[in-house]
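> forwarded from #structure-qc
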């Protein structure tokens, strides 16, 4: 049976505890493992106050769903859920939340890591720094390290 996939791109704050409870409530009796990852906005040693995230509506959701489908084809995952923010995200707030459930931990953990590695490089999001001094910084360039991490899944 194909995995149940849910994708949300929102400008609303992500409530991690509520999201976990809702995800867990929808898991089946054979889901012995739930893995998750929460990516938060860092302060970069006090230099940042926030990140501004932009995306292509519709395209971002479709790309995230395609990434989740790829994960579910590699591992026996029952459910995958991704919530990604856009707009202004303050330091300490969640930017992205990924859940995966499976009968066993290996599939759930690998699925979450796979989804995150591909989100970093393939999802159409752009980040602009908002600095602690109140000024706007540059748009953040893609990092070659993220592509190297993603490429390990090809082997």
């Amino acid at each position: 049976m194909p995995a149940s996939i849910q994708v949300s791109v929102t400008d609303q704050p992500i409530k991690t505890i509520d999201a976990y409870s809702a995800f867990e409530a929808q898991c089946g009796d054979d889901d012995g493992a739930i893995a998750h990852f929460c990516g938060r906005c860092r302060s970069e040693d006090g230099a940042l106050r926030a990140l501004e995230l932009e995306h292509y509506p519709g395209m971002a959701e479709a790309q995230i769903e395609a990434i989740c489908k790829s994960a579910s084809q590699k591992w026996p995952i029952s459910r995958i859920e991704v919530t990604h923010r856009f707009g202004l995200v303050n330091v300490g707030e969640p930017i992205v939340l990924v859940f995966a459930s499976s009968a066993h931990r290996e599939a759930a953990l690998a699925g979450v890591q796979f989804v995150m590695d591909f989100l970093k490089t393939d999802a159409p999001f752009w980040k602009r720094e908002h600095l602690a001094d109140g000024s706007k910084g540059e748009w953040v360039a893609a990092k070659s390290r993220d592509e190297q991490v993603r490429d390990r899944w090809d082997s």
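QC bot note: Residues 19 and 25 are 10 Å apart (CA to CA). DSSP finds four helices and eight strands in the chain.
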